[in-house]
Amino acid sequence: SRGCSELPSAWAVAHQFDIAIVSSVISLTFSFFLSSCSGLTHESHRKDVEQVYLRCSEGSIEWMYPTGALIVNLRPNISPASYKHLTVCIKPFKDSAGANIYLEKTGELKLLVRDGERGPSRVYCFGYDQGGLFVEATPQQDISRKITGFQYELMSKGIAADLHTASAPCRPCSDTEVLLAVCTSDFVIRGSIRNVTNEAEEQESIIHVGVNKLYRQKSKVFQLTGESGNWRGQIKTLLECGVKPGDGDFLFTGRMHFGEARLGCAPRFKDFQRMYKEAKDKGLNPCEIGPD
Questions:
Q1: What does the alpha-carbon distance between residue 15 and residue 13 come to, in Å, rounded to a whole number?
Q2: Three-state DSSP class for 274?
Q3: H helices within 190-251, ranges in order?
Q4: pLDDT of the residue at 214
Q5: In the chain, which ranges are E strands?
Q6: Which of 33, 59, 175, 249 to pair with 118, CA 20 to 30 A apart?
Q7: Does 16 score more than 70 pLDDT?
Q8: Which residues form the signal peptide (predicted)?
Q9: Domains annotated on the chain, with CATH
């Protein structure tokens, strides 16, 4: 029978668009499966520290039976000159355990996520040029019960700033910000608030939206439901913003973030009509969109 010392020293699983790539190192045998989509490669000669290379702009990592350490190298398929304009965000799985996650640069480690840290699902963001990810397993009596995992995204620093405005995350948008959001957001809809569900543990609110007109959506967050053929969907925002159900239509804009719709600017629709008309009359509207 095989003892614990012969369990895989690293078993990393990277997911991208429902494609799974498994790389495992066993004490005597090395098995390696690579999908050309993910860009995951493995340095088999390393024993205590394993390396993975990810070339997709978003995905997830699962490290099963963590021992030793992983160095996660994000290498997007863009010009290296553009790296300085990138922000990296990671979101640990709710049940992630067995390792600490650090930001590493030139041998210096900065703790991002402590093993066993619980609480609201947090997103940790940093500039691409601030370093890479170093995931170090913590001593465990039974590593077979531990899985360390997180989602990751690479995005431009401008988009990241929109999603993580620390100074005033709930402030109303100016007319200029609304008009720009209409042109650049991942989704733009006219709709009403059917209900709001508050999740105290996650410190988030889920806005249940009835859609009257769909201008644009990057992902199929808003879909036809039921025989009536009504469009509906959900948008998340911070609990501290205090969103409540109300009458009337709004123009909802926002970004997709870790597979979820996150609220951006959301003026009342009549206010959007006014600002859009004023900008169009002056030839200042940044893009064309039908306000009705």
A1: 7
A2: helix
A3: none
A4: 92
A5: 10-16, 19-25, 30-32, 49-54, 58-64, 69-74, 86-92, 99-105, 108-113, 124-127, 132-137, 147-156, 187-199, 204-217, 223-225, 230-238, 250-257, 260-263
A6: 59
A7: no
A8: none
A9: 4-159 (no CATH), 165-281 (2.40.50.120)
Structure confidence by residue, pLDDT tens digits, 104-121: 988 889 999 999 786 667
- Mean pLDDT (whole number) for 151-169: 66
Q: Higher confidence at residue 196 or residue 201?
A: 196
Count of residues making up the chain: 292
- Using CA atoms, how far residue 239 sits from 36, 89, 223, in Å, is 40, 21, 25
- In whole angstroms, give the CA distance from residue 259 to residue 13: 19
Cα torsion angle, 156, 159, 163, 168, sign: positive
**φ, ψ (nearest 5 deg) of residue 265:** -80, 140
Residue that is written with structure tokens 């889920």 in the block: 206
Q: Of 79, 76, 70, whose CA–CA distance to 88 is shortest?
A: 76
Amino acid at 179: L
From 34, 81, 77, 33, select the one nearest 55 (Cα to Cα). Answer: 77
Q: What is the pLDDT of residues 258-289, one digit of tens each?
A: 888 999 999 999 999 999 999 999 988 888 88
* Backbone φ and ψ of 244, nearest 5°: -130, 155
Q: How confident is the model at residue 155 (pLDDT cuts 50, 70, 90)?
A: confident
